[in-house]
Amino acid sequence: MKNGIHPEYGPCTIHCACGNVIETRGTRPRLSVDICSACHPFFTGKQKLVDTAGRIDRFQKKYAGKVVSAKKPAPKQKPKPEPNPETAPKPQPGEPPKAQA
Fold first, then answer.
1. Distance CA 27, CA 9 (A)
2. Cα gap 14→26, rounded to integer Å
3. C-alpha separations of 45 from 12, 17, 19, 65 in Å
4. What is the pLDDT of residues 49-80, one digit of tens each?
5. Which pLDDT belongs to residue 54?
6. How many Å apart are CA 101 and CA 88, to the nearest integer?
7. C-alpha separations of 57 from 5, 34, 51, 92 in Å
8. Dist. CA 95–CA 28, nearest whole Å
9. What per-residue confidence (pLDDT) applies to 1?
10. What order do you get walking across the sheet with 21-26 strand by strand?
Protein backbone atom coordinates (compact mmCIF):
# COMPACT_ATOMS: atom_id res chain seq x y z
CA MET A 1 0.00 0.00 0.00
CA LYS A 2 1.13 3.50 -0.74
CA ASN A 3 1.55 5.81 2.20
CA GLY A 4 -0.54 8.96 2.50
CA ILE A 5 -3.37 8.11 0.06
CA HIS A 6 -5.68 6.06 2.33
CA PRO A 7 -8.09 7.64 4.86
CA GLU A 8 -7.77 7.00 8.58
CA TYR A 9 -9.64 3.88 9.70
CA GLY A 10 -10.77 4.22 13.29
CA PRO A 11 -13.70 3.75 15.66
CA CYS A 12 -17.09 4.80 14.28
CA THR A 13 -20.50 5.25 15.94
CA ILE A 14 -23.64 4.63 13.85
CA HIS A 15 -26.83 6.33 15.10
CA CYS A 16 -30.20 5.13 13.74
CA ALA A 17 -33.44 7.14 13.68
CA CYS A 18 -35.02 4.46 15.92
CA GLY A 19 -32.46 5.22 18.65
CA ASN A 20 -30.21 2.20 18.13
CA VAL A 21 -26.46 2.90 18.43
CA ILE A 22 -23.87 0.60 16.82
CA GLU A 23 -20.13 0.75 17.53
CA THR A 24 -17.89 -0.30 14.64
CA ARG A 25 -14.90 0.92 12.66
CA GLY A 26 -14.89 3.19 9.64
CA THR A 27 -13.37 6.19 7.92
CA ARG A 28 -15.80 8.62 9.61
CA PRO A 29 -16.23 8.97 13.37
CA ARG A 30 -20.05 9.25 13.27
CA LEU A 31 -22.77 8.09 10.82
CA SER A 32 -26.54 8.72 10.93
CA VAL A 33 -28.90 6.27 9.23
CA ASP A 34 -32.68 6.07 8.82
CA ILE A 35 -33.00 2.28 9.06
CA CYS A 36 -30.80 -0.24 10.84
CA SER A 37 -30.94 -3.99 11.44
CA ALA A 38 -33.01 -3.42 14.61
CA CYS A 39 -35.87 -1.67 12.75
CA HIS A 40 -35.61 -2.96 9.14
CA PRO A 41 -38.65 -5.07 8.09
CA PHE A 42 -36.40 -7.80 6.65
CA PHE A 43 -34.89 -8.47 10.08
CA THR A 44 -37.91 -7.71 12.29
CA GLY A 45 -40.64 -9.35 10.18
CA LYS A 46 -42.90 -6.28 10.61
CA GLN A 47 -44.25 -4.29 7.67
CA LYS A 48 -43.27 -0.64 7.78
CA LEU A 49 -43.79 2.03 5.13
CA VAL A 50 -40.80 4.25 4.60
CA ASP A 51 -42.03 7.59 3.27
CA THR A 52 -39.44 9.33 1.13
CA ALA A 53 -40.17 13.03 0.63
CA GLY A 54 -43.91 12.62 1.31
CA ARG A 55 -44.52 10.40 -1.73
CA ILE A 56 -47.06 8.19 0.04
CA ASP A 57 -49.09 11.19 1.21
CA ARG A 58 -49.07 12.73 -2.28
CA PHE A 59 -50.20 9.44 -3.81
CA GLN A 60 -53.05 9.05 -1.30
CA LYS A 61 -54.21 12.65 -1.86
CA LYS A 62 -54.07 12.27 -5.64
CA TYR A 63 -56.12 9.07 -5.73
CA ALA A 64 -58.38 9.63 -2.71
CA GLY A 65 -61.98 8.75 -3.53
CA LYS A 66 -61.19 7.33 -6.96
CA VAL A 67 -62.17 3.75 -7.59
CA VAL A 68 -60.15 2.06 -10.30
CA SER A 69 -61.10 -1.35 -11.61
CA ALA A 70 -59.40 -3.21 -14.42
CA LYS A 71 -62.55 -4.91 -15.67
CA LYS A 72 -66.09 -5.64 -14.58
CA PRO A 73 -66.47 -8.68 -12.38
CA ALA A 74 -67.94 -11.73 -14.08
CA PRO A 75 -71.53 -12.58 -13.11
CA LYS A 76 -71.81 -15.29 -10.51
CA GLN A 77 -72.79 -18.66 -11.85
CA LYS A 78 -74.92 -21.07 -9.92
CA PRO A 79 -73.07 -24.23 -9.00
CA LYS A 80 -74.29 -27.29 -10.87
CA PRO A 81 -76.22 -29.66 -8.63
CA GLU A 82 -74.54 -32.98 -8.06
CA PRO A 83 -76.37 -35.92 -9.60
CA ASN A 84 -78.31 -38.03 -7.17
CA PRO A 85 -77.07 -41.64 -7.39
CA GLU A 86 -80.54 -42.98 -6.51
CA THR A 87 -82.27 -41.25 -9.46
CA ALA A 88 -79.42 -41.68 -11.98
CA PRO A 89 -80.12 -44.20 -14.76
CA LYS A 90 -78.63 -47.61 -14.03
CA PRO A 91 -76.57 -49.40 -16.71
CA GLN A 92 -78.26 -52.25 -18.51
CA PRO A 93 -76.88 -55.73 -18.04
CA GLY A 94 -74.03 -56.30 -20.48
CA GLU A 95 -73.17 -52.52 -20.84
CA PRO A 96 -69.90 -51.24 -19.45
CA PRO A 97 -70.36 -48.64 -16.65
CA LYS A 98 -70.02 -44.99 -17.72
CA ALA A 99 -67.18 -42.87 -16.33
CA GLN A 100 -68.30 -40.14 -13.96
CA ALA A 101 -67.13 -36.55 -14.53
1. 5
2. 10
3. 28, 18, 19, 31
4. 666 667 778 888 888 877 766 666 677 777 77
5. 76
6. 14
7. 46, 19, 8, 73
8. 89
9. 72
10. 21-26, 10-16, 30-33
- Alpha carbon of residue 19 to chain centroid: 26
Report the alpha-carbon angle 34-38-39, nearest 5: 50
Rounded to whole angstroms, the Cα distance separating 13 from 33 reads 11
Spell out the domains of the chain, with CATH numbers in brackets. Answer: 1-46 (4.10.80.400)
In the chain, the amino acid numbered 99 is A
101, 88 in Cβ contact below 8 A? no
* Cα–Cα distances in angstroms (integers) from residue 15 to residues 24, 39, 62, 101, in the given order: 11, 12, 35, 66
pLDDT band at 97 (very low <50, low <70, confident <90, very high): low
pLDDT at residue number 32: 92
